[in-house]
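fyi for ur records
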Amino acid sequence: MNNLKYIYMKMNFFKLFLAGSFLLIACNKENKTSIDVSKQWQIDNSGTLISGLPDGQWENRTFTTQEQSLFNTFDTVSLSGTIKPDSVFEEKPLSRNFPSPNPFKQSNQLSFSFTNGYSGQLVLKYVIVNSGLSIMDKGAIKIQATACSTCPINISTSGIIRFNPNIPSGKFRLYYTLSAQSNPDFYKTWGNIQKN
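which gave:
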């Protein structure tokens, strides 16, 4: 009789184990994130847009909780002495807030235009992810914006910010934010990039 009880207990344990395994597999499949990195804007070396879609890439946006969590490791980046401008221009050719060129071979670059007359430092934080939202490369760069006093509209620019992403060939997504001491991550955007 004890053997039957033992066998019955083992069978119940095995059924519970199988049910738990199936549940775990189902949950993992539901939680697996995938993003579409196939839609690429083509941008030449001078930052001129060759082709792009009105699909929201490179526009100021609100990140999802999962997207914002990509920047959790930057909590220790010092924002001391940084100042937020009143605005970040997205109009071309004043600003090239998308990287050029795209696709790129080894390096690409960004530049920003800010509120007229603004001079100050900001922090650019970036994260490059694959289609599974796994981080491939990341970094933080302190940038200096300077107003052009001889320009007719006194525009302020960051100058050229160069990147040498440590990623293999393929298609990815670049997330970045601009931060200041008074307002961390005040400007957020993303777009797809390709390394050849």
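The helical segments are 2-31, 65-69. thats all i got for now
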